[in-house]
Amino acid sequence: FFVSGKPDYSPVSWREYFDQMEDVNVGPADSRDVFRIYKAGSDGPLLVLLHGGGHSALSWAVFTTAIASRVNCRVLAMDLRGHGGTLVRQSDDFSTQTMSSDVANVIRSCYGETPPPLILIGHGVGGAIAVHTASNMLLPTTVGLVAIDVVEGSAMEALHIIQNFLKGRPKSFKSMDHAIEWSVKSGQIRNLESARVSMVGQIKSYVNDKENAASEVSLNEGQSVYKWRIDLSKSEKYWDGWFRGTSNLFLACNLPKLLLLSGINRLDRDLTIGQMQGKFMMQVLPPCGHAVQEDRPDKVAEAVAAFLLRHKFSEARRETRR
Question: What is the C-alpha R_g of the chain?
């Protein structure tokens, strides 16, 4: 990841990590809801990967390679509505009901009414959506649930910090390389390999027109500027609904469950009691930021692989790929 001794901040294609990218049409023919998905693997259980707020399916890229080298499985990572390359008519409806329906619709569109056994794996908001999808039994072939760094108690406490975080980050970047460099140096993503593939899903280029030219002092008209694909601050009215009640929903899901945390201080009261009662597997990962599966993809893959093997959802890969 270094060119002549310096870190290489150039973007890397999704093709290095996934087998294919598809745009899946969902809903009636006259509605144009198109969800972007990335797939890998051809046999074994299906891991449905749901990213956190502001991220995209590409935040699972490095994890996908890591899990595929450990166990036989298939991966489907999707861009949630309003995120990445997904285009829906109501891109500002971020209710858990709508977003969990999206997940079920995409899986049905890809696999029909009887998809393979699947494990829902979600990070942050995606974790909350995974819990809602599982608890409402929207996908009957779901056999397992993995929530990553989503805990109702700490999430509710952190809601007021999110707006400050969003206000504090740059509004635009001169180039994709600059954005990748910022994401690593600011600590948003603490893993250069992951940042190089995943930032492409977070920002996109806009040609600078007269309207923008005034606000983008450093750019001339006609030059392109990179901006965030989604204005997360506009989803604020949904934040409370994403997380409120998720701890008890998670505990009530009658499925094998795994909770991965970036710190033990994340646990709230309900989950602490549930953990003591042995209602789910839990693992605290080595120090990392909130983008757990990007910062520590190998550790997350190890934990998920152990979960899959323990419950006999999957088999270990015989040959260890280099």
Answer: 19
What are the start-end ranges of the H helices in the chain?
61-68, 96-111, 125-135, 152-168, 176-185, 192-198, 210-215, 236-243, 246-252, 269-276, 292-295, 297-310
DSSP state letters, 17-56: T-SEEEEEEESSTTS-EEEEEEEE-SSSPEEEEEPPTT--
pTM of the predicted model over 0.90 = yes
Task: Please report where in the chains the tokens 């757990």 appear, as a residue.
Answer: 292
Beta bridge partners of 283: 260
- Structure tokens belonging to residue 293: 């599966």
Tokens describing residue 314: 């999957």
Pairing outcome for strands 224-228 and 172-173: antiparallel
- For residue 216, what are its two tokens? 């983008």
Q: Which residue has the tokens 């899990």?
A: 67
Phi, psi (5° rounding) for residue 25?
-85, 135
Helix 152-168 vs helix 236-243: angle between axes, to the nearest 10 degrees?
160
Distance CA 45, CA 253 (A): 19
Q: What is the pLDDT of residues 267-292, one digit of tens each?
A: 788 888 898 898 999 998 877 888 89
What is the distance between the alpha carbons of residues 58 and 258, in angstroms, rounded to a whole number?
A: 22
Dist. CA 49–CA 30, nearest whole Å: 28
The structure tokens listed for 294 are 């990007």
pLDDT in tens, 99-129: 999 999 999 999 998 899 999 999 999 999 9
Max distance between CA atoms of the chain, in angstroms, equals 62
Distance (Å, whole) CA 182 – CA 300: 24
Rounded Cα distance between 25 and 35, Å, is: 7
Sequence-ordered list of residues with C-beta below 8 angstroms from that of 320, at least 6 positions apart, any chain = 69
Q: What is the pLDDT of residue 216?
A: 44
Hey, what are 319's tokens?
């040959």
- In b/e form, how buried is each residue of 290-309, taking b as 16+ CB within 10 angstroms? bbbbbbbbebbbbbbbebbe
